[in-house]
Amino acid sequence: MGKIIALKKLLVFTGAGVSAESGIKTFRDSDGLWEEYDIMDVATPEAWLRQPKVVLEFYNARRKQVLKAEPNPAHLAIVDLEKRFDVQVVTQNIDDLHERAGSKKVLHLHGEIRKAKSTLNPELLYELQKESIEWGDKCELGSQLRPHVVWFGEEVPMMLPAQEMVGKADVMIVVGTSLNVYPAAALVYHARTSCPIYVIDPGDPLIPRGLDVTWLKENATSGMKRLLGMIK
Prior knowledge:
With 232 residues, the protein is of the alpha/beta class. The chain contains 7 helices and 11 strands. The chain has helices at 16-20, 45-50, 52-68, 73-80, 97-101, 159-168, 220-231; strands at 9-14, 33-34, 37-38, 86-91, 106-108, 111-118, 125-127, 145-149, 171-175, 197-200, 213-216.
């Protein structure tokens, strides 16, 4: 396996497997149950309309979990890449562990749990100064605040900028995702044919055909350690 040399722009695409090593659970850990909740009951627009207080309770619990978590060696290895490359992180994760680890450029495809947004105007975003969003917390327009996350069935507003970033990358590293959650998984198809793609995941990712893909069947921490060795 060759070494990565003379590369300028590096795109790191991360999924739940990176956050899981910091103790953050994923809904795929247990047959669609996310901390004892059915995902359709807490992460869809319909759930919000039907039982908004339950949805808020669920995300308040997840936010507390995120605040207790710490970046793991995989996060730090990604930061280490910034010493040699122009690194852009695109993540499916809604936590802020990349930022806390030190990554300077992070795009969140599915939102950020430590922010709230208006239900009337989704462009009105608010940095949360507390652990929870309560029923009755309102935006400046007077509408209820909701978590700043993309629910199943909603559009992914940051998909287009992410596609453009992938298209400009000299190399792409995919970490902690099985590449089967769409539309995010389709990002790899926006890489140039000359762009090598390194997939780090212990499972069985859907490896795209027609692309220059190297698969490291390891977890995020060990896979990133191995990749850094290849780069050095």
